[in-house]
């Protein structure tokens, strides 16, 4: 089976016409009704599932300077009006180092318009803004060297926890670098803008085609900041095309389902510092029983860009199945697949996230369909079809020895584990090999839920470039365990892993009656 990239681009162009899609807005409903009309003929059931959200809307943002007007972008979820007129002696430019150093900032920043260059990782706009906001500037302006505007969520808390948070009271905008330079030298300038938050409902679009045993879910988030071509107009277009075109011969009597999630970019009804993946987390929580019974894998497509479709998963069974499709990275808290991983459900993401960051496209107006090469769509479509074929071929042929080998390789790649956990793993697999006639996949879901943990360095906020990372059975000191606290150091973390593996070994024996079963493989 071959997916026609021209058809995918055609779907993407239709989606792009709806403009910026923020969860809980009318634009979102208009878009989903369009997609619904597109997939209904290929579905046994289609549902729009309401999800409580906090929505956000920018009415306008522009800068007036020396008789000219320039567009700017307010950083969500700022709520309020902006009308600041200032002279050039009220503007100060700061380097990243000076911001993070913090010395004498109060005197330089207080009640001034502060201009800072957009950092290499645009998400660090939030780190810099939080630091500067404590010094009471009038406004923060980020000068983008890529000559674009972009949106980055800025809350008063950085660590991804279920901890109540709110937007900054200080307005933060992004301007193209050349415009920001004009503000620095102009006699005077004026910034005008308005944006607000409001309670609303976003919607997950869910479609099912029932065919025999189990189901593969094709998933993507449909909300996006600004033009959002790679993130995630093309992802939606591609999973929609796959859902329509995937053939019975590939699926081998499996069901296929489509889930387009709301509010991947934000925000929950009560905003907290883990503000993203709202729609997928809601879906997994609400439908966990059904997913546990029937899910073969959730295949997420997000950030379609460049010349390489990367595969990320935290599930060793999927790692084993997908051997031969190139290097496999760990799942990440930035992807909707993470909502499934948290629940121990098999999931993966096809993406080019790092490439979008490196090339400065992330959450900006540079992320336009005109900049996407048709070869990119072909690369991602081909990789998605290869993944579906592997899942269909190996879903009921899990080799425990190969699974053990895959997990060992992954642990070695991460730098190993401590001796107690290694011994517990050996004993666990010894009993698992006796599970003749039982679903290894279901048993292993509990293993993934217990062993995949996400961390972030404790120096987040004090330096740039700090991102969350997910690992299997690996523990660290000087990190936060997220999205919930609970593990204070590596010793406690490894003790937790050993306890969970020992408990799973007991469950395996109970389920498989291992003392009476014949060892297989």
From TrEMBL:
Which InterPro entries does this one have?
Peptidase_M28
List the Gene3D superfamilies hit by this protein, alphabetically.
3.50.30.30, Zn peptidases
Cite the Peptidase M28 domain residue spans from the record: 215-385
- Name of one Pfam family that matches: Peptidase_M28
What is the official name of this protein in its record? M28 family peptidase
Q: Which organism is it from?
A: Ignisphaera aggregans
